[in-house]
Amino acid sequence: YVVEKLVPTGSTVLLNKISGYPDEADEVIVNGEVIGHRWFDPTRWLWRFRPILHGVARMVRDEFGYYAKVDLPKLTRMYEIHRDRIVKAELPEEKGKIVALETINGKWQGIARLVRGKRLLVIIQWW
User: Fold this and answer.
1) How far is 105 from 98, CA to CA, in rounded Å?
2) Residue range 89-126, pLDDT digits in tens
3) What pLDDT digit, counting tens, does each position of 34-69 carry?
4) What is this structure's pTM?
5) What sections of the chain are H helices per DSSP?
6) Cβ partners under 8 Å of residue 99, min gap 6
7) Which spans in 54-101 are helix H?
8) Cα dihedral sign, 76-82-86-91
9) Of 37, 83, 87, 88, which one's alpha carbon is 20 to 30 angstroms from that of 104?
């Protein structure tokens, strides 16, 4: 569902090889914008996708997929966001899933992983 929203019908899609992953991985570029990374997970024997940059911006702006708008002045890597700081969200039920993030002032974006007690652990952030 998320990939269908991020890649509209008729879009030009480029896959740019990424080094540094233990297996096969690509940067996904749609109509000139980097929307995420796809990589092969040999433990599950399937391709996985993680939104970044323009993908995260679209998910939060258009409110689709797993996303959260948080009441923080900035995002910091490895910071655990408590439930009371989450202003608006669509969160997964399963721990470990990736969530697109944005501060309510709109200055910071990133991705987080859902952890215990519906908290979000910031993995990557940018402004």
Assistant:
1) 21
2) 999 999 999 999 999 999 999 999 999 989 999 999 99
3) 999 999 988 889 999 999 999 999 999 999 999 999
4) 0.89
5) 2-6, 54-62
6) 66, 67, 68, 89, 91, 92, 111, 112, 113, 114, 120
7) 54-62
8) positive
9) 37
